[in-house]
TrEMBL record:
This is Excinuclease ABC subunit C. CDD domains: GIY-YIG_unchar_2. It comes from Niveispirillum lacus. It comes from the Bacteria.
Amino acid sequence: MSDPFTIRIYVPDGDPEAVRIIDRMNWTGLGIVFPRGKWPEVRQRWEQLRGAGVYILVGYGNQDDDLPTLYIGQADGVRSRIETHYQKKDFWDWGVVFVSNSAGLNRAHVTWLEHALVKRANEAKRCHLDNGNAPQEPALSEAEKADTRAFLKEVLQILPLVGLRAFEIPKAVAEPKAIDPALLPQVNRAKPDTIIVPAQKDGFEKVFLGEDCWYAVRISGGMLDNIKYVAGYQTHPVSAITHYAPVSRIEPYGEEGKFKLVFSGKAKPIGPIPYGDAPSGAMQSPRYTTFAKLQTGKKLSDLLSR
């Protein structure tokens, strides 16, 4: 079980969406979170930014991305490095920088932190990295590595609280157990347990059939524990439900409250169940139904009817 902790957030402008200064009791570090547009003001904090530090720049490569793009960097003189990125990197919307408030970090320490954060981001697979190369782990003494690991632990605890979960290894929010509907009482068979997701041809073949999962799905909180199956609706020109799969786990995906459905096996063909006389726009977003209806429905409206 993780240890409980407290952080302190100081908002110098009085605007919670603007600059935030973060510290913790008995911690030698200091975090500064800022929107890109506030960098000209933040850069005036010379005393806090003139030393060694590690920073993360956050944005989206394009408006259709569900995963954020990150650039993870370090410098001995972090202010000038971020200033360069402010001038030359366009993708980022906000940043967070971590420095020591007691001159406790040196170049080797922040290089190790950069290495550890890049490694962690690659393991979590919850972002796109703008870094060109993975930094090599620098040599630190046993004592220095222990201290720097402790600093990293503090950073990883703070990041989700400022809106960045890209370094968290995904944990299942639900682990469905699919059961043959014929074995369930009739009252339970009427409860939605299947989500129908719209998919274009390329994504359907690459992800739904190829990777045995489907991601970037919005699911209402009350449905997370109910979903046991996912059905794939292929958009035009197919315009039909063609496959389904049992769901083994549901994980968070990205920073916008979406989820990833991980299948317990390969998707199986069904139907196809055509769009038919369903109302216009019926499959512009995920819909819920029951697996019993999925097995017997002849057209989409059969699945969506109450």
